[in-house]
Amino acid sequence: MAIFLTIIGISIAVLAIYWYIKNKRERERKKRELDELLRKQREEKRQQLVALFTELAPKVTKANKEFEKLTSVKNGYFSNYQLHVWKSTQNKLFAEIDGQPYTNIQLDTAIVSSLDKFSSYYKQSGSLRSSFIKKFIASELKEYSSFFDNIEGRSLDEQQRIAVVTDEDNCLIVAGAGTGKTTTIAGKVAYLIKRYKLNPSEILPI
């Protein structure tokens, strides 16, 4: 009887070991299948993103060049309206890029660099414009210093010169009588003609 019970016990133990090994192998097989499925999904997603950003690359490059043109001193003042137009035009493009993991999908480094630049331009456009305006005004005051020394026989002071080179959509100058508002306007007209080659007949001072 004892031998019979021993045989039964051994048989149960063997079966338990067998089922444990079988279940373990099954779990490992399922895990491998799941890992492979996830790997394929990640690769598919990566390829989709690479295709997307490769397609968007020319638009991003164009947007970057437009912004860099706006922040080039030789092209003139960068107005708030120009910034509004640029950002409005790029809203959709930025929405397609923002938050996407383009830095770790084996994308061409030139495209990654262009995307980084665009994101920076878009997110920091306001502060970049402000920094540019300071640089632009300083450059213009130096470049046209002698020009501003003789506006209707008068030399403009620093505030007048800044008012002249500032080319926002709306500029408000507050000053008392006889302080040079008319001279500033005359200087503005002369500056626009000289700096931007505008046709005098297209300028209407009021």
Element string (H = helix, E = strand): HHHHHHH
The percentage of residues in β strands lies in under 5%
Mean pLDDT: 90
Q: Give the low-pLDDT segments.
A: none
Number of strands: 0
Structural class based on helices, strands and sheet pairing: mainly alpha
Q: What is the 3D form?
A: rod-shaped
Helix count, per DSSP? 7
Tell me about this structure.
- This protein has 206 residues and is an all-alpha fold.
- It is 72% helix and 0% strand.
- The protein has helices at residues 2-70, 80-97, 109-123, 125-143, 145-148, 158-165, 181-196.
- It is rod-shaped, with a radius of gyration of 35 Å.
- The mean pLDDT is 90.
Summarize the structure.
The protein is 72% helix and 0% strand.
Give the helices and strands, then pairings:
Elements lengths: L1 H69 L9 H18 L11 H15 L1 H19 L1 H4 L9 H8 L15 H16 L10
Helix pairs in contact: 1-2, 1-3, 2-3, 6-7
Distinctive features:
mainly alpha; 206 residues; rod-shaped; 7 helices; 0% strand; single chain
